Every structure is written in C-alpha cells, then in structure tokens.
Amino acid sequence: MAGMDPVLKSLTEMGPTGVARFAESLDPNWIVEALQATGSASIRRRKFPATLVVWLVLGMALFADRSIVEVIDHLRLMLPGVKSISKGAVPPARYRVGPEPLRWLFYTVAEAWAHTPGGEDYRGLSLYGIDGSHIRVPDSDANWEHFGKPGGRNGPDDAAYPQVRVAWLMNLRNRMLVDAEFGPWATSEHTLAEELWSVIPDHSITLVDRGFINYAVFVAHVQEGIDRHILIRMKSNLKYEVAEELPDGTVIGRFSVPHNVRIQYPGLPATFLARVIEYEHPGGEPGRLMTSLLDWEAYPAQELVTLYHERWELEVGYDELKTHMLERKEALRSLKPEGIAQELWGLFTVYNLVRREMLLVAQKRELPANRISFRASLMWIRNFWIIAWGDSPANIPKHLGELESTFDLLVLPPRRSDRKYPRHVKIKMSNYPRNRGKKRAARKVPKKASKSAK
Predict the structure, then answer these.
(1) Is 44 among the domain residues?
(2) Would 31 be classed as within a structural domain?
(3) Is residue 50 part of a domain?
(4) CB 175 within 8 A of CB 118
(5) 275 bridge partner residues
(6) How many structural domains are present in the chain?
(7) pTM for this one?
(8) CA 304 → CA 84, 239, 291, 365, 435, distances in Å?
C-alpha cells in the first residue's frame, strides 16, 4: 500500500470545501480509510474515483429529492479538468465500490459519536433502545428475488414493492444510531435485533417493545454484563408466578423459560426473576412492564413508567428518516441489493451526521437534544453543503457567521409529553385498482436470447 499513499493523500482533499465545518463529525480521512480497509481503493486514475463515489452516496442520502446526476452537479463531484460525467458511468462506479466502505464508515462514525452523552443518564445508567421497521425498494427482479415482498389479502407477494427489514440500536439520550441490521422481508425484526445486543455497553438500560421478547437474549444480556438491564412492555397473555410482593405495589415475578427454548440454549436456566410494574394512563388501557431493575427503592416504579416512553424516540427516528430524509419517496433508488445496502449505510451515516450537528447546537444553547428540530437541521446542513461546496474557501467563515444567526430557528418549544394520539389512517386509500408490481411470470426475455430463438 506504500505506493498508494500519494494518491490517497490527494483523494483526501476531494471532499466538500465546507467539510471543515463538520470536522468534529465527519473526518474526510475516514473515507479514505474506509476504502483502504475494505480493499476498495484504487491507484487507477478514473473520472469518477472511489472517494467521490462515497461522497456521492452521502450526497444521495442528504439530497433524496434530487436525481443522482443533480447531486453530482450541485456538489461538483468531479475531478479538476473533468467537465461532466455520463449517466452510464455512475452505476458501474457505485457497484465497483460496493456497500462495504459505507458500512465501515457508518461503524466508524457511530463508534466516535453514538456513545457520547446527549443528556443526563438515568441514575448512572446510559439509555438505549431497539426497534424495527421496513423500507420499500424498487420493484426490480433482483430486489424481489433478494428481499421479497409482504403478503396481503390476495396472498403472498401481494405488496407493490419489495421491502427490506431494518432494526436499529439507538442511544435514546443523544438520538444517534449505535448499530443497525437489515435483511430480506422474510427475516423477522426479532432475528435482526439479536445481532444488536452484543454492542450495548455495561452500566446501561435498554428499552424494547413487547414484540422483541426473547428470554435467552435477556438472561444473557443481564448476567454476562456488568450492571446491564432491560425494560420491556409485556404482552397481555404473558404469565409468571409471583415470587415476592414489594412495598411499592410492584412484584418480583418468576418467569418460566419454555422447554424448546432451553433445548436451543442448553445453558439457560429453567426460570429467572424480573420485576413487574403495572400501570394505566388516564384514558388508556392497563399495561405491564418487565425489568431486571429489582430494587424498588433505587428505581421507583413511576420513574420507570415515564422512562419507558422514551422508547418512542426510535419511532421518531424512523419517521425522520422516511419522512424528512427520504422525502416520503415510494422507494429507494437502487435496482440491485448491493446498491440498496450501499444506500442504507449512507442514509444511516448521514442521519447520524444530522443528529451530531443537532447535539452540538443543543449543547451550545444548553438545551436537551429533543429541543432541536430535525427537519430544520437537515435543511440547514443541505444549504450549507451547497453553499460551501460551490464557493471559495475564503468565504466559509462568512457563511458560518450567517448560519450561526439561524441557530435559534432550530430550537423547538418544550415537548408536551402529556399528548397521546391513537394510531389511525389519516388519508383514505384511492379507489383506483392497485398496481401490485411485477410478477415473476411476466419477466421479459433478454434481447440476446430472443434473437437467437428467432
């Protein structure tokens, strides 16, 4: 690799002029290191080298409402002396680089930012959450075969688009992604989430919804770590034996591990203890929480009930990515699974970039992270990248001064946590017949094959 050093050093300077503003968040050297670490760097001089491909994928995530050609043009992703890049050169360049450098970059920046505090811990425990969602991808044969489609009332594969399952691990206090897993639709969120637990540090509490109950994971997470805990909403039919009634009205429950689970995980005990907290919000239905925090005096029940609802930050995060970053697009851009993976890692990285900038603004204003608007911050970063990338470096301080004055526009009023809304459909579906996408039997015969048949 010694012969590549001069080339890689020059590639470091290919990022946006305004990247100096984000030096605390996105070190341009990380992009070069990502290419080196994944074997995607090349000494061959191309019109569209690997470093610019990585910047393009990040730009695609930041400017989802623009075509790839527009992203290249607006952000001037071209080498000196190159006036234009043909549309046909972009897909080969993207697939030549592949998803691995973007994956490496995501984990590098997540490790650098995601565990940093964004607010007070809960009684010495850092706060994390796990949840899942799905994202539609283009209805190409390659995406359909790899990701699959959900079923519906008309049977399997009834959905219009293939969909990718996604599971996130988020630091709930600074709202940054720590880890992410994704896979075909047939892979459950439950399975994807199993890969996330090993990343959670000691001295923490993790919030999960009732759909992620997994006795084997819970017992291992608590017993094999140091001061690691869980807080989960229980299913209505989940049964347990009362082992001890506590003075605050909560109980220590003895939960039996199903026999088939113990066969799958031989070291798992037959039973384990967890504290059960029953609660009911005004106008709501009764609920129950299960937690490994057994000390009722150190961890009051009402505090844990309130704490659990911070899990909603994960739902807010998915909304920020789908509604604001992706601009409510029907699907992602790529027609191949490798391109989808590349896009997703780019989206997750840019999501953390926006969140990092929000955290810096919050710290400067001495406000909690949830007082900063994601939408306004996203627009602010978009505008700065366009201005800074296309202007002289000498003008960057002037633009920064102008942007500093807009910080107050990013601040939201205090969140009204007492508001509660039922889940419902806001807009009625169209009465037109549904287009359920391509069918396997309807795929076209390749042109070469059809000619030879004649």
Answers:
(1) yes
(2) yes
(3) yes
(4) yes
(5) 252, 291
(6) 1
(7) 0.84
(8) 57, 21, 9, 28, 46
